[in-house]
Amino acid sequence: MSTAADSGEAAPLRRTPLDALHRARGARMVAFAGYDMPVQYPGGIIAEHLHTRVKAGLFDVSHMGQIGLRGARAAEALEALVPGDLQGLAPGRMRYTLLLNAAGGILDDLMVTRLPTGSGDGLMLVVNAARKEADLAHLVASLDPDVTIEPRFERALLALQGPLAAAVLARFASGIASGIERMPFMSGAAASIAGAPCFVTRSGYTGEDGFELSLAAEDAVAVADALLNEPEIALIGLGARDTLRLEAGLCLYGHDIDETTTPIEAALAWTIGKRRRAEGGFPGASAVLRQLADGPGRRRVGIRPEGRAPAREGTLILDTAGNPIGRVTSGGFGPSLNAPIAMGYIERAHAAEGSALALVVRDIARPAHVAPLPFVPTRYFRG
Amino acid sequence: MNTTRFTRDHEWVRPEGDVAVIGITDYAQSQLGDVVYVELPEIGRTVEQGKEAAVVESAKAASEVYAPVSGEIVAVNDAIVGDPAKVNADAMGEGWFIKIRLANPTELDAMMDEAAYQEFVAEQH
Q1: Which among A8, A46, A104, B120 could bridge A335 via Cys, Cβ 3.0 to 4.6 Å?
Q2: Residue of B nearest to A243 (CA)
């Protein structure tokens, strides 16, 4: 039997503040974006995935990059680099957006939160682990000098995701007058969790209701232990994080989106605010807005294989006549669906929901069709 | 007497007369994690030692299973196609993959016995 070898990385791996906790709980550690990260615990990916959908899971995502932008002009300045409407963000509100290059290609995807009233003027960004150094350099090179850039790569980030996340977190939270369980989806607030000062957002990467907690590295173990002592909470690794986000139809940077894909091709046109469409003023605006008007030549879609065989990243996609029309960018098994699922880019003529396709897996063309995203209905908190 | 033999690719081979039952080891299934898909060869096909005979996919990745011995495929375990989790639950028993009619029984001689295999696995860490 043979398995693809782990990607050998020469540099020593960095460790998150929860490294010892992962090992003590039997994690299998793998190299990911320069970090030694838990891919799964003894329960396994499927059990961890299903636990998150039914109860709630705790994820260590401290490898991700947290960057503060301070100053009254932070939102306006960052708008020169992304197509999202950031000036329209009310204090304490959060938005998903994209750093673009001059051709409209995606340099990274990120979450941007406008600091809540009382925390000063500015934004808090969460960027991908593998991109954080490049993103920081890009911000330093591109942003107005009156915006102060504060990398907070030393901070921990914990995600608590699942239908019981709010009820469990409420047991430990103080400092939010209306109650943490009433926080709107895509908002952020300062709070105390199990006695530790945290910046809490109601957001995540699973399609479930949930929260992300940004906190000092030295508080991370105590907060994680407190949450893990609750019977509803299990520790979840990167393996299940990937199957959860794929079922939710969410992009993984470096796979589903990268510098060669535009927001329109990636089916992320919804991230471009109305005002930004009218005004432009972001990198690659002319190309992106032209694609928006004319339709892109190819588009990211969901794909359901009709058999049981998963189609992995890189799988060639054919039309029913056998012509190549695209490639799978993420593919595997969806535990909640108990079936294989995939995403990929397909030529526009074949991208309509229900279009018949074939996926070439181990030299055999296997039937599949274009399916709506998300594969599993999202259950974000809507008040 | 336990005559089960093991390969360095983490397959096991249990001779039953002129036929060998073949599967992946318990160590292999634990390394793979949750098995979600198995693809088995057609009965009647002839396989050569060391060549791909089956595919096993976990939640994370696809892996090939090599034929540890040469010969004709005389049976496949459809039960693990319908319920791939059986490979995790009982890799050395109900989770068997294929049966091969041995073309060259001496191929077994070079393989490890259980004690040697356990030592080999221990060296992997």
Answers
A1: A46
A2: B59
